[in-house]
Amino acid sequence: MDTLCRGTKTSCLNDHMNNSTIQFIRKANVKTCKAPVLNKKKTIVSSLGMIIQSARANTEGEDMLLDTPVCDFGWKAPDFVLNDPDGNSFRMSDHLQDKGLLIAFICNHCPYVQAIAERLSQDTRTLMNEGVNVLAVMSNDYQHVPSDAPSHMKRFAEQYDFQFPYLVDEGQTVGRNYGAVCTPDFFGLNRTGELQYRGRIDDAGMGDPAGRTPELLNAMREIAETGRGPRQQSPSMGCSIKWT
Questions:
Q1: From 3.90.550.10, 3.40.50.150, 3.30.230.10, 3.40.30.10, which CATH number describes the 65-240 domain?
Q2: How far apart are CA 128 and CA 98, in angstroms?
Q3: Is 167 helix (H, G, I), strand (E, B) or coil?
Q4: Which of 9, 15, 147, 189 sits in a 20 to 30 Å window from 134, CA-based?
Q5: Is the pTM of this model over 0.70?
Q6: How does pLDDT run across 53-106, given as a tens digit for each residue?
Q7: How far apart are the first and last CA of the chain?
Q8: How many alpha carbons lie under 13 Å from residue 159 in its C-beta half-sphere?
Q9: 225, burial (CB in 10 Å: exposed 0-12, middle 13-18, buried 19+)
Q10: 110 three-state secondary structure
């Protein structure tokens, strides 16, 4: 790969990154930034900084930057039972109400989750006030990434004032059954548990959220009202889930 983000030379980063970090960005290819922010130098620098942080934070193993796949409309989400860090049990089907359910696969250490955590807290609080339930699942192998351990999950949830249950996928069964690929990975379900949204939280990404379009919020509102999600969806992007 000769260029990064359509023209920014990887060679200009060599003085600031080690070889493993450069390899991480090369594997990420042009997914490291999106076209709408290419002319915003500050946003590009911020995005690159977060990517570098992600690479350095995961020296215990390989961390790939991934996009979520296209929404498989009508896919039936399997039921599950998981505990939160305090040992309280939650069954997915108990939270599948008339206005649907949002399931968010997230973690603590990923810079992409950290970048949207405040917005996620804000948007999910709005949805929950409108009758849309929310569950978050942490499927990473926290023996491999200790910063994702349940004790850290609890602190992370408190830091961002999450109002939804943040659940530990201890055996990674739920993540595998859902085909989750990265953090964050959003599954917007209608009242019958059918997948209607598999997109990103908004169009701000890693940049300035001022003036953003809250795509996840809008999609879940549409699902709550009609049972169907928008046909045009942009993929979420984040660190790969750390499988055992």
A1: 3.40.30.10
A2: 12
A3: strand
A4: 147
A5: yes
A6: 444 444 444 568 899 999 999 999 999 999 999 999 999 999 999 999 999 999
A7: 30
A8: 11
A9: exposed
A10: coil
